[in-house]
Amino acid sequence: MQDLIEILISATAGGCIYALLALAYLVVLRPTGVINFAVGDWGTVAAFGGFLALSEAALPWPVGMAVVVIAAAGLGWLTERIAVRPLVERGAPVLAPILALLGMLVIFREAVSLGFGPDPRPIPQPFGYGRIEWGLLAASYQSVFIIAVTSAVFVGAWYFFERTLAGRSFEAVALDRRAAALMGINLARVTSCAFAAGSALAALAALLLVPNTSAHYLMGIPLAIQGFTALVIGGVGRTEGALVGGLILALVEQLTMRYVPIAPGLVQGVPLLLLIVFLLVRPTGLLAARGGSA
Amino acid sequence: MKTVVQAALVIVVLSAIGFLLGPWQTDIYRKLLLWIALALSYNFLFGVAGQVAFSHFTFYGIGAYAIVILVTQVGMPLPLAALAGVALCVVLALAVAIPATRLDGFYLALATLALAQLFIVFLNEGGAVTGGTGGLASYRLPDIAGVTLSGPRYTVVIVLLTTLTWGVISRLDRSWFGRACRAIRDNPQAAAAMGIDVARTRVIAFTLTSVLAGIAGMVYAFVDNTVNPPIFGLENAFLLLFMVIIGGSGSQFGAVIGATVLYLLPFVLAPLIGHHHALVFGVVMLAVILVQPRGLVGLVKSRPGAGQ
Predict the structure, then answer these.
(1) What is the signed CA dihedral for B240, B243, B245, B250, rounded to 10 degrees?
(2) Is A24 a domain residue?
(3) How many contacts, defined by CB atoms under 8 Å, are there between A and B?
């Protein structure tokens, strides 16, 4: 029983990471229609940023985390300037920025491998390796930290998209770009904010993950796959979809790893299977969009 | 008749080159031809049918592993093993494409990315069947009708593969099917309104080109007489995409040019920058998309109706 509860908590923490990645896709996808597979490698860059800030410079965690997340937002803004805006201004088909972002993905990854080499780099745990044990509940500090940060982010995102004017303008652009522009919404600004936010979210996900796994230059693609699968499971229509999808994906992965007798590496097949099942059975994801479709 | 003569001439010339080269050049020449074959079929999938898939190189690997395992471990005769390998590619391609192409958007890109990642995991975890991380080695091509195909003679097999791929793809491109694929790429709704079955055409294009990649993989299996997981990693899936984009997506000449330039470039760049040519490819690919979407062929000629 305690075993099961511990798995549930660590799955929740893993699911929170996927949910943040799914949200990183979502904030870019909703207003621009661009699926940005570079989110995983934004995470890679941020993970090595975290290595520099937290391991090398040994900054305290809150400071290091803030520095990396803000720098990541800058990276996202820069990504949009280089690989997306020129194409949008030229009126290129939507495939063009997606491919350009794939090019950026490779550039990020290779730049990291050039700078840090192929060895994994450790990053310290923010609260050490301790555990909370409280009756049947048992969890590592890191799991609790991940769940707390992610909850805060999702509450913030929900508040932003549902309750603030700036957030509603994102929604308006998602529903109808042209009408939104006619209402005086600055499309270019919404787009660059979306990329900056996406990169910051990916950075947060990576920073929460790497104390458990270390930073490695090839970590980006698995993150990109898991985050997108979470998005497909939850549905792209609503912010909560990212959270629901991430939690389901992690739960299925962890339960498979614990109770199904297959090689641990093959658990990486779980996202593909879930993805195919969901595309066949419920392509809109679990949570359908409210009001008009997008 | 004219095209038959032309094709025969090309095959003779390309094969003759194979007889003139030393061992090191032969290795490069064979792999170049294989890359061209892959780029040609991938160009149809990505450039003509407009499907962003990362599984093309995976199917190359599936073909290679399938034929080696079926011949050496199951003991099938070569033709039967080749047919079984094709059947395997068809089944896997359908399993991915039928759910993923039902929807617009980039679900196929993700599903194929996951498939490519899973294939490598499967190879590493496959134990004695796939040889694990070390892969399979020290097998050789069985004699075909009493003839041992090795050295330049095997180069001729690769020449035939590449020219046949060219032939199949260019026939396909000019048929109603190729036009349907282009129509869907440019505007799926309009294509559907004209009576094209969008989902079915997409699935067929994906399956056909994946099978072509699988067949190329079967030929590759006996080039080095070893198959191992790193060869079939995502690196090469991206390289293939870059070849087609940089050469000029949608153009067969573009695929050939892109494959040739990107395959040979590392040999030139290695003394300058070591193994970091992927960074250069990323930058060049980005520059091509931003500056010259029609790729290198777009620089050379501007034929209306070609390319984008």
Answers:
(1) -90
(2) yes
(3) 112
Interface contact flag, B52 A96, Cβ < 8 Å = no
Q: Provide the domain count of chain A.
A: 1
Task: Per residue of chain A (294 residues), give pLDDT as tens.
Answer: 777 888 888 899 999 999 999 999 999 988 888 889 899 999 999 999 999 999 989 889 999 999 999 999 999 999 999 999 999 888 888 888 989 999 999 999 999 998 998 899 988 888 877 788 777 777 888 888 999 999 999 999 999 888 888 888 888 887 788 888 888 888 888 999 999 999 999 999 999 999 988 899 989 988 998 998 899 888 887 888 899 999 999 999 988 888 887 777 778 788 878 887 887 777 777 766 554 443
Residue of A79, A253, A276 best to disrupt the B interface, most CBs of B under 10 A: A276
Q: Which residues contact A142 (CB under 8 A, 6 or more apart)?
A: A13, A125, A126, A127, A208, A211, A212
- Bridge partner residues of B144 (DSSP): B147
Cβ atoms A20, A150 nearer than 8 A: yes
Q: Is there a contact between A225 and B114 if contact means CB atoms under 8 Å apart?
A: yes
Report helix angle A141-163 to A239-259, nearest 10: 160
> Does B290 contact A86 at a Cβ distance shorter than 8 Å?
yes
Contact B117 A87 (CB under 8 A): no
Q: Is the ipTM of this complex over 0.90?
A: no
Interchain pair A229, B110: CB under 8 A: yes
* Cβ-based contacts of A86 with chain B (< 8 Å): 290
- Structural domain boundaries enclosing A209: 20-218
